[in-house]
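Q: What changes when iron/sulfur cluster is included in the input?
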Amino acid sequence: MAASGSGMFIRVEVDGTAASDAAVAKQLAAVCPVDIFADDGGRVRIVDDNLDECILCGLCLDVGLAGAVRVIKRYDGDKLLRHP
Ligand code: SF4
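A: The predicted holo structure follows.
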């Protein structure tokens, strides 16, 4: 099952394969500087309360297969975050 969450400014989506991959869950929890991802027993959980703290660093985009993690800028016409 995919993982996703929306704040006022930012939406984050993780596709189903990645969201249930224990290695991905561990890496996402480690890389995000503002703790938007939690490792929930080997599954990715989005921490809704932290979504709008996203600093657009792009570190999460390197986890899992290309495109598995998407950061959507709700404040900017739903544009996808690309690597800075
Ligand atoms: S872009 Fe950076 S701050 Fe935003 S969710 Fe990804 S790792 Fe976290």
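Observations recorded in class: The chain has a mean pLDDT of 97.
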